[in-house]
Amino acid sequence: MADHLAALGIGASSDEERREQVRSILKQAQPYSQRADGMTLRWKDPSGAELWIYVDPEGTMRSVQPHLAGGPRMTLELQAVLERPDVSPFDGGFLGLTETGGSNPALGGGFAVIFDAPDFPDVRDATLTAKHNVELAGFALELHAFDTEEAFREAQPELKPLEIPSFIPAGMMSQTEDEPPTAHALMVGRLLKGETLTNEVTGEDFLCLEIETPGGPVRMAVAPETMAEIPAEGTILQAGAWLSGRLTPENDEK
After folding, report:
1. Which of 1, 58, 144, 151 has the smallest count of CB within 10 Å of its CB?
2. Rounded Cα–Cα distance for residues 239 and 188 (Å)
3. What percent of the chain shows pLDDT beyond 90?
């Protein structure tokens, strides 16, 4: 299991070394937005690694959300806002529906995707039941590779085997009445392309894998401890991942 920061090359042999890395990142973070409840800071690395940092009016850091920019966008019809007050007032995301790839007629041909928004305070009032282009990024928590479809089939349970490709909003399975679903998914698909990226602040490498899903490709950040090297294109991947998503803004050059 890998944490989200390690998937962006922010990892070290000791807690103190990681704190130094985070401090170096904070020095480079730029103000993104100002609101009555605090300020949003954004750090962008040439690799695409991002950290979104939230500070309250007293200047105390309240939340840090990672994201991986530069990946494909998926058109989602937003159905619900998911606030996470148990984490912080700055954390939350959305439940969206894809346009295609689903098997439940009640969902209109699509399937549910739950993602956390790193810039949630700035987009929490996004129009619902409207379509948005979302830059989805997966952060691999568990990852398995299979060279052939036969090898993949042999590893599947006899009951309810997974298809290729498939997408299951796993966060909905553990949902309780009092808590919103988490932004976790189980994805199966072939590797479309992969590359090794370097976090320029830490000097650490991480993998970036683009995996097919029934609703379109998703870019995924992978810590070296989760997968040491990039498999061949076409390899079947089974990934348990946390999803981060940004609603595409008109101007994202700030």
Report:
1. 58
2. 6
3. 70
Q: What angle do CA 94, 1, 44 make, to 5 degrees?
A: 55
* Predicted TM-score (pTM) of this structure: 0.92
pLDDT at 1: 35
Task: Sort residue 170 into left (φ over 0), alpha (ψ -120 to 50) or beta.
Answer: alpha
Express each pLDDT in 70-90 by its tens digit: 999 999 999 999 999 988 889
Q: Scan for tokens 């498939």, then name that residue.
A: 166
Comparing 177 with 197, the larger pLDDT belongs to 197
Tokens of residue 114, six digits: 């739950």
**Token pair listed for 234:** 């076409």
Beta bridge partners of 116: 93, 244
What span, in angstroms and rounded, lies between the C-alpha atoms of 99 and 103? 12
Task: Encode pLDDT of 170-196 as tens digits.
Answer: 999 866 667 889 999 999 999 999 999
How high does pLDDT run on average in the chain? 90
| Residue 139 CB burial class (10 angstroms; 0-12, 13-18, ≥19) | buried
